[in-house]
Amino acid sequence: MRGGAPGIMSLVTDGDVAVVTGAGSGLGRVVATTLLDAGYRVALAGRRAEALEETAGGRESALVVPTDVGDPASVAHLFAEVRQRWGRVDLLMNNAGTFGPSGSVDEIAVEDWSSTVATNLTGAFLCAREAFAAMRAQRPQGGRIINNGSISAHVPRPGSAAYTATKHALTGLTKSIALDGRAYDIACGQIDIGNAATDMTAGISVGARQADGSVRPEPTFDPVHVAEAVLLMARLPLDANIPFLTITATTMPFLGRG
Fold it and tell me: 3-state SS of the chain?
């Protein structure tokens, strides 16, 4: 949403331009299609072109750009394609991520740690860097960046040092972008999600290891509610921001974890 127009559920302005990473599956696909349905023009970024095309569904308002978010040149290409096609960037949804290795800290290979950091943290930084530069330079100036955090940005699961560390770090990145963006009408917020039902979290509903070592199934919820929450954040005028929003399955063991 450009400018400072009033109203939480204001309509999208002239097909505002969004970039969604990890748009080929899971939450990224649900968020991207929800934004498309809401009238956004959406650039779909992800590693697999075929999966991105499935998300696009042949819509003229969707732009498919295969992207490796951990590669600076690939991310620069993504945003160059968006600016060439639509001339601006109004919204970035930093969604791409991976669970990474499982095990206690002494069992995690350095290369697996580095790969997780490259996707979850460096990837978010690279995309935010390009989006911030575009939003700062464009007229009208400004835009919004939404980072996909996690319940693991608050508390870890057993054996998740790499994933948890990147999600905690993402919170710091969100705060820094929000502060640095004030002078340029760039808002930044984070959505922390617990147990949305996607392919990535399919095992949780069957059995997830708990802090006491037991394995128990956990409740999940429809990812469309995540997309609706993202849309709520995205539709705010730029003089308002939701810095952090947490959405979980109501009875998941988050508040009692440990």
Answer: CCCCCCCCCCCCCCCCEEEEECCCCHHHHHHHHHHHHCCCEEEEEECCHHHHHHHHCCCCCEEEEECCCCCHHHHHHHHHHHHHHHCCCCEEEECCCCCCCCECHHHCCHHHHHHHHHHHHHHHHHHHHHHHHHHHHCCCCCEEEEEECCHHHCCCCCCEHHHHHHHHHHHHHHHHHHHHCHHHCEEEEEEEEECECCHHHHHHHCCEECCCCCEECCCCECCHHHHHHHHHHHHCCCCCCCCEEEEECCCCCCCCCC
pLDDT at 9 over 50: no
Q: Specify the pLDDT at position 254.
A: 79
**Which pLDDT band holds residue 245 (cuts at 50, 70, 90)?**
very high
Mean pLDDT of the chain: 91
Residue 184 annotated among the catalytic residues of the structure = no
Q: What pLDDT shows up at residue 210?
A: 79
Q: What is the pTM of this model?
A: 0.90
> Mean pLDDT, to the nearest integer, of 2-10?
44
Catalytic entry in 79, 125, 132, 163: 163
> Which superfamily, per CATH, for 17-248?
NAD(P)-binding Rossmann-like Domain (3.40.50.720)
pLDDT of residue 205: 67
Which residues neighbour 110 within 8 Å (Cβ) at sequence distance 6 or greater?
none
Domain ranges of the chain: 17-248
